[in-house]
């Protein structure tokens, strides 16, 4: 009688990319870049960040986003959840410092609250839950566009001198390393769009490899600076508890708040999944620019929240699909064919319950 290999439940999507990120963190802990090697890795990381945001700009369809303006109430609701409610909850968590969270972990938690929403995973879970997929596509696109400007500005306003020390120089770096490449990608989108579509899979590896390089650089700087001596397992456990409460609050507020605002079920699904998520791929590069040597601690809350949101939203999406309104048809409004309408941004394939790494890191 052969033994069965133990497997994780199908509803528990452990993102393989998170495992790769953790492996990169371990490598930086054992073999941090220092001296001349740190200069080389730092320069490569800066170039990788610029490349990432160029590709984001080249992939993001502004026409598709503008076509969604007719559903402006939904998009404003998602933007309010992402850039107003989330930051307010982050500011409320200030009372947990320093008894529960260290100042560095709190800065990372507040930064997490300022990061834009995801695009691909919001679409994937909205599709699975029979929600309004075109609305999720547009809402994620609006959030990404707004986050290029709003996240650094909110960080400068709310974080002040904590973390890496926000200054005119920090904002200039944001403009040069993030905004300029992003705008260049938008301007060149028509010329390079076909190439990006033909080489989507290979460029997905470029995306993920670039982020791994950014993480290695940030954690190497943190190891050399000795910032990890400030964190204990108890503090990390407390951070997980705080983030679980934060995610639960946002899931409840987006679901029940959108009902009070008069949205239908399919729209509420899109609002819940787009308004409760945070983008790992956008947040990590921004953190390295804004926090400097403190970035290794600043990104820990975002990395933990990212995996938590995937696991929780997978369960919710599956339940929404089972408990859909019986008055609706076989599929929720906007589902039929909607997944393909965003193929250029969402990966093109039917949306699975546990999206592939290139679909969940944005």
Summarize the structure.
The protein has helices at residues 16-30, 36-59, 62-67, 72-92, 103-114, 120-128, 133-159, 168-187, 189-198, 200-225, 233-260, 265-275, 280-291, 295-298, 300-322, 338-341, 343-346, 357-360.
Helix and strand arrangement:
Layout: H1 16-30, H2 36-59, H3 62-67, H4 72-92, H5 103-114, H6 120-128, H7 133-159, H8 168-187, H9 189-198, H10 200-225, H11 233-260, H12 265-275, H13 280-291, H14 295-298, H15 300-322, H16 338-341, H17 343-346, H18 357-360
Question: How much β-strand is present in the residues?
Answer: under 5%
Order of SSEs: HHHHHHHHHHHHHHHHHH
Shape: globular
Secondary-structure-derived class: mainly alpha
Helix segment tally: 18
Radius of gyration: 20 Å
Which stretches are poorly predicted, pLDDT < 50 over at least 5 residues?
1-9, 325-362
Mean pLDDT, nearest integer? Answer: 78
Major sheet, described briefly?
none
- Amount of helix: over 70%
Ends apart, CA distance between termini: 44 Å
Report the strand count. 0
General description of the model:
The protein has 362 residues and is mostly helical. It has helices at 16-30, 36-59, 62-67, 72-92, 103-114, 120-128, 133-159, 168-187, 189-198, 200-225, 233-260, 265-275, 280-291, 295-298, 300-322, 338-341, 343-346, 357-360. It is globular and about 55 Å long.
């Amino acid at each position: 009688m052969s033994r069965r290999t133990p497997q994780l439940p199908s509803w528990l999507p452990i993102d393989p990319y998170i495992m790769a990120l953790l492996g990169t963190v371990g490598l930086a802990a054992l073999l941090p870049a220092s001296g001349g090697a740190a200069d080389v890795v730092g320069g490569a990381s800066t170039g990788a960040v610029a490349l990432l945001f160029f590709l984001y700009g080249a992939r993001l369809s502004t026409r598709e986003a503008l076509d969604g303006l007719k559903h402006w109430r939904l998009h404003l609701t998602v933007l309010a959840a992402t850039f107003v409610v989330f930051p307010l909850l982050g500011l409320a968590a200030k009372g947990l410092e320093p008894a529960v969270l260290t100042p560095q972990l709190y800065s990372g938690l507040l930064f997490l609250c300022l990061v834009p929403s995801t695009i691909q995973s919001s679409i994937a879970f909205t599709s699975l839950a029979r929600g309004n997929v075109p609305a999720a596509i547009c809402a994620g696109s609006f959030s990404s566009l707004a986050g290029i400007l709003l996240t650094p500005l909110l960080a400068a306003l709310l974080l002040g001198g904590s973390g890496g020390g926000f200054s005119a120089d920090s904002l200039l770096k944001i403009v040069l390393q993030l905004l300029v490449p992003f705008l260049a990608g938008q301007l060149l989108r028509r010329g390079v769009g076909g190439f990006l579509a033909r080489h989507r899979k290979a460029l997905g590896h470029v995306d993920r490899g670039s982020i791994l390089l950014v993480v290695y650089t940030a954690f190497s700087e943190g190891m050399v600076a000795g910032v990890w001596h400030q964190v204990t397992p108890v503090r990390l456990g407390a951070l997980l508890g705080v983030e679980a409460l934060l995610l639960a609050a946002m899931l409840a507020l987006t679901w029940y708040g959108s009902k009070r605002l008069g949205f239908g079920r399919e729209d509420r699904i899109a609002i819940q999944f787009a308004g409760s998520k945070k983008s790992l791929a956008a947040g990590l590069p921004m953190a390295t620019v804004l926090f400097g040597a403190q970035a290794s601690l600043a990104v820990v809350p975002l990395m933990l929240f990212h995996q938590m949101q995937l696991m929780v939203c997978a369960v919710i999406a599956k339940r929404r699909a089972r408990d859909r309104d019986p008055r609706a048809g076989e599929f929720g409004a906007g589902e039929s064919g909607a997944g393909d309408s965003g193929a250029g941004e969402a990966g093109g394939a039917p949306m699975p319950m546990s999206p592939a790494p290139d679909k969940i890191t944005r």
